[in-house]
C-alpha cells in the first residue's frame, strides 16, 4: 500500500477537537474501525455513533 494521509483539523473526530498529529503526513491510512464487532468507520465515513467502554484507572 503506497497511500499517504495528512491529518487535518476538519477531519479530526475526537471530542476535544484536536490531535498532536495535526498537519502530520502518515505513510498509510485507516480504512476501517471496528468496535465490539461493529464497523463504525469505513472509507472516511462514520457509520455508527457506537462508542467504546470508558476505561478507568486507579493509581496506587
Short summary of the structure?
Helix content is 0%, strand content 25%.
Shape: extended
Structural class: mainly beta
The helix-strand sequence is EEEEE
Q: State the strand order across the main sheet.
A: 3-4-5
**What is the makeup of the main sheet?**
3 strands, antiparallel
Name the beta content range.
25-35%
Ranges with pLDDT <50 over ≥5 residues?
none
Kindly provide the radius of gyration, computed on alpha-carbon positions and rounded to a whole number of angstroms: 14 Å
Record field, number of beta strands? 5
Question: How does this model look, in words?
Answer:
By secondary structure, this protein is an all-beta fold. The protein has one domain (5-46). Helices cover 0% and strands 25% of the residues. The protein has strands at 5-6, 25-26, 32-35, 38-42, 45-46. A hairpin with a 2-residue loop joins strand 4 (38-42) and strand 5 (45-46). The N and C termini lie far apart (44 Å). The model has no long low-confidence stretch (mean pLDDT 84).
Can you give keywords for this protein?
two-stranded antiparallel ribbon; 60 residues; mainly beta
Amino acid at each position: 500500500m503506497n497511500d499517504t494521509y495528512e491529518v487535518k483539523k476538519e477531519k479530526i473526530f475526537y471530542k476535544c477537537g484536536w490531535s498532536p498529529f495535526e498537519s502530520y503526513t502518515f505513510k498509510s491510512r485507516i480504512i476501517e474501525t471496528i468496535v465490539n464487532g461493529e464497523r463504525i468507520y469505513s472509507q472516511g465515513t462514520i457509520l455508527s455513533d457506537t462508542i467504546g467502554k470508558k476505561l478507568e484507572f486507579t493509581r496506587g
